[in-house]
Design brief:
By secondary structure, this protein is an alpha/beta fold. It has helices at 3-14, 95-106, 108-113, 129-134, 160-168, 171-180; strands at residues 66-69, 83-88, 116-121, 140-144, 150-154. It has a domain at 66-180: Glutaredoxin (3-Layer(aba) Sandwich).
């Protein structure tokens, strides 16, 4: 007995719908803001209720810590815009050089908050402007303030935590933090 209503429903769904005649006003009586109605078949007409377009939300990429080769920049390019940390070595195979770059890359977030840019140089023969300005000997970590003056130099690798504490104790950084609060 249940099969009969299902069969009737299936037959109703399978039969084509009878076209309904829409009452259309004559062309000369159409309102000004409406276009005349076309008598085209319903198959060619666009559906009235188009689904809304999908909205794609693109998340911005988090900022990345910028590592720049000293041959490609000068300290003057970073005046008042960033706080350069310069890592020097006599060879790129110096373990202290690699350790320092790894330490900086591992915890980039606190450095990005302080507008740090990492400049690296492991070629003493290149004689670029950064090396000539800071005159390092062997491995050296140099933190430069926004005004271009050297804040401090270290002969050994430093952890990001130590670097950020030292930066936060600089008078310029204390003033920055006071203005931003």
């Amino acid at each position: 007995m249940r099969a009969v209503p299902a069969l009737i429903l299936a037959l109703l769904m399978a039969t084509p719908a009878l076209p309904q005649e829409a009452e259309t006003p004559p062309v000369d009586q159409a309102p000004v803001d409406q276009a005349p109605v076309d008598d085209a078949p319903a198959d060619d007409a666009a559906p009235v209720d188009d689904p809304p377009e999908a909205v794609v939300i693109v998340e911005p990429e988090p900022p990345q810590l910028l590592f720049i080769d000293a041959a490609d920049t000068t300290l003057e390019e970073h005046l008042w815009s960033s706080r350069p940390i310069v890592v020097f070595a006599d060879t790129p195979r110096d373990p202290r050089f690699q350790d320092q770059l790894d330490l900086l890359a591992a915890r980039a977030g606190p450095l990005i908050e302080r507008d740090v840019v990492v400049i690296f140089d492991a070629d003493p023969d290149a004689r670029n402007s950064v090396r000539l300005a800071l005159r390092p000997r062997g491995f050296s970590l140099v933190v430069v303030q926004r005004d271009g003056h050297v804040a401090f130099r270290k002969p050994n690798p430093w952890d990001v935590r130590e670097i950020t504490r030292a930066i936060d104790n600089l008078p310029m950084r204390i003033e920055e933090m006071g203005l931003s609060q």
